[in-house]
């Protein structure tokens, strides 16, 4: 699916705060709500098997129906069903999209008309980050993980390619939903890495407390 012509104009969308999917990355999901069980079943009947992950806008309860304008579609590449009828799935990031409008219909889940233009890079090969100082980045990451009391497989991180490392950390680190959106909207891998560094440094300086000084 490298051309917008090969991508559907309308896709099901899954608004999930804090859940970030990036191109060529994988997002495991545990599906149990009836409307999203129906979405998975309908998705598997389509040729593209795409689901659009998108962040709801922050705000009062009623405002959460509003969605950010950019999301990322993932192809359903793994599926299993539990004995009690829940689904365990994996979405593989295909391309970001711009939300044009929601589509009214008879499905219990939300659908939207989307535009794939402007995200051609998502559908090419893995990106490289020419200015990536891996040693300095991993040093910062170690301090951030220690402060957050997180653990990881450091040998795997050191061996991972630039894109896999930066995108995986963007998806997995416990940032606020609006920060996840900023990582999603980064126009290049280098910009995403810079945003990721800024978020980790901000957390190490005390986060919200730093704003009050």
Automatic annotation (TrEMBL):
Q: Please give the PROSITE patterns that the UniProt record associates with this protein.
A: LON_N
Top-level taxon of origin: Bacteria
State the InterPro entries in the record.
Lon_prtase_N, Lon_prtase_N_sf, PUA-like_sf
What is this protein identified as?
A: LON peptidase substrate-binding domain-containing protein
Q: Where is the Lon N-terminal domain?
A: 11-204
Q: Which organism is it from?
A: Rhabdonatronobacter sediminivivens
């Amino acid at each position: 699916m490298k051309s917008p012509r090969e991508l559907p104009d309308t896709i099901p969308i899954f608004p999930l705060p804090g859940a970030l999917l990036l191109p060529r990355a994988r997002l495991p999901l545990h599906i149990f709500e009836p409307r999203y069980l129906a979405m998975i079943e309908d998705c598997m009947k389509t040729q593209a098997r795409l689901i659009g992950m998108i962040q709801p806008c922050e705000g009062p309860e009623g405002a959460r129906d509003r969605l950010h304008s950019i999301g990322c579609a993932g192809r359903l590449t793994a599926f299993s069903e539990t004995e009690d009828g829940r689904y365990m799935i994996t979405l593989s990031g295909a391309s970001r999209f711009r939300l044009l409008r929601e589509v009214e219909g008879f499905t219990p889940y939300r659908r939207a008309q989307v535009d794939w233009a402007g995200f051609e890079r998502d559908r090419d090969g893995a990106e490289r980050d020419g200015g990536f100082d891996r040693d300095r980045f991993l040093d910062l990451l170690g301090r951030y993980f220690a402060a957050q009391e997180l653990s990881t497989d450091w040998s795997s991180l050191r061996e991972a390619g630039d894109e896999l490392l930066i995108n995986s950390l963007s998806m997995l680190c416990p940032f606020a939903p609006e920060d996840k959106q900023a990582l999603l909207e980064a126009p290049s891998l280098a910009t995403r890495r810079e945003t990721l560094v800024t978020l980790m440094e901000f957390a190490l300086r005390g986060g919200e407390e730093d704003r009050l000084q």
